[in-house]
Design a protein that fits this description.
With 148 residues, the chain is mainly α. The protein is built from five helices and no strands.
Length: 148
């Protein structure tokens, strides 16, 4: 009998819970394209906060608020739109995939820039090294007159 009551109680509790209904479409729903932009910036800010949180706080900056202002949206509009899109897992995955693609493209650009800068630093170091070797071999030469 106790077992039956327990099963009945668990069943009623389980069935009595309101099902996870799809959120209503907000009147001021953020478009998918704009949502990609907002979330992209939010991800970048989130990463930046992890690296230099103290600097941001010291300067009194609230990056999330800046992003909301940048896109002319408020936090409630963002939250409702995010909930609306997140309910449809496939749609939200598509949004996240666009953001990942965009971040990877940006990463590739920065990696290429970093590689170029490292190559330039290496060329400069090599030039300085050559100039020092030439000056050592010929101490009477003015280092400023040495050219490649």
């Amino acid at each position: 009998m106790k077992r039956l009551i327990t099963i009945l109680f668990v069943s009623v509790a389980f069935l009595g819970c309101e099902p996870n209904l799809k959120p209503e479409k907000p009147e001021n729903l953020i478009s998918r394209e704009k949502m990609v932009d907002v979330l992209h910036d939010m991800f970048i800010v989130s990463s930046a906060k992890g690296i230099s949180r103290i600097k941001l706080e010291k300067n009194g900056l609230n990056p999330e608020l800046y992003i909301l202002k940048k896109y002319d949206i408020d936090s409630l509009q963002f939250a409702k739109s995010n909930d609306y899109y997140a309910y449809d897992v496939e749609a939200y995955k598509a949004i996240i995939d666009k953001i990942k693609e965009r971040l990877n493209t940006e990463k590739e650009k920065f990696v290429a820039i970093d590689k170029e800068e490292q190559e330039e630093r290496t060329r400069i170091k090599d030039s300085i090294k050559k100039a020092k070797q030439v000056q050592k071999a010929n101490p009477n030469l003015d280092a400023l007159k040495i050219s490649d």
